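Why do we bother with holo predictions? Because pocket geometry can differ from the apo form. Keep that in mind while you read this record for flavin-adenine dinucleotide.
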Amino acid sequence: MLSETTYHRPNSLDQACNLLSENPDAILLSGCQSLGLLSKEGIVSLDTIIDLNRISELREISYKNGSLYIGALATHRDIETSQTVQTHLPLLSTAAKQIADVQIRNAGTIGGTCAYADPTADYPPVLMATNATVHSRSTTESFEYSTRDSFFVDYYESAIGPEEIITSITIPVSKDAGFGFEKLAYRKNDRAIVNVATILETKKGMCTRSDICVAGVWDTPLIANEAMNSLLGTQLTDDDLSRASEMSQEEILVCDDPLISVEYRSAMVGVLTKKALKTARGDLS
Ligand SMILES: Cc1cc2nc3c(=O)[nH]c(=O)nc-3n(C[C@H](O)[C@H](O)[C@H](O)COP(=O)(O)OP(=O)(O)OC[C@H]3O[C@@H](n4cnc5c(N)ncnc54)[C@H](O)[C@@H]3O)c2cc1C
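The structure, written out:
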């Protein structure tokens, strides 16, 4: 027998926070792309739903003072096609374009993706590489989480508390950076076996910034610290990129699964890191 669902559709963030505080077991609904699957599998029960889709303030995409502001309800398609994102952080639109198919991109949101914390998702490595901040709210407080340090806690677990609603993501952007994003999946636009986001910057031909984040391989996305440090001060020659890719392959932990061996996944970390670094180098003006 189908159970009854209480369905709330607040018009404002304040209303949504109050509803969540009054109904601690309620499920927040954004694009319903992951929730749909979870409820079909019986993993979540949708007895009380708070649908966030009428809260238009959560849809904003803008650029202010060197930072990109993405509202939690911005869909993957909004992000993929936004001129603002393409101009200031093409890395994010590239990642958005690789999510599933256009139907899912039309509905799925960046806020839902962050909350769900799927380790194979495509935004998390970009958000960690760029040092993005996730913002959330409860009835009484506002919270900020560094994606680099504290947001992605464990397998499908983010740092947000049960009374919090993700409101936006802010991302510092640099006009001098070059970007790379690579994804290996079973089929085009499927979930990642490995995905890698890279950022490079140079001054007078020397590397002054290098960020490498790898996902799809472990419970959370991982930063390749040693590989990143190895590039600083170099001229980003092919040898420099090869050495960094080998280091990334060595330092990034990878999981085993029945279909993909540790050896293969690990080798792909090296291959994709190198490709993404080459793309980022080619992207430098
Ligand atoms: C067939 C398929 C293929 C996919 N392929 C990919 C892929 O290749 N790459 C990729 O990155 N993703 C992929 N996804 C996931 C997709 O990107 C989802 O859109 C995303 O994971 C969840 O976003 P959503 O807006 O649909 O969230 P929902 O399904 O609505 O919610 C997901 C979870 O987040 C919570 N939540 C939602 N919004 C908020 C909020 N603002 N604050 C706090 N909690 C919130 C919900 O309560 C729920 O627990 C795929 C999904 C499907 C169904």
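The radius of gyration is 19 Å.
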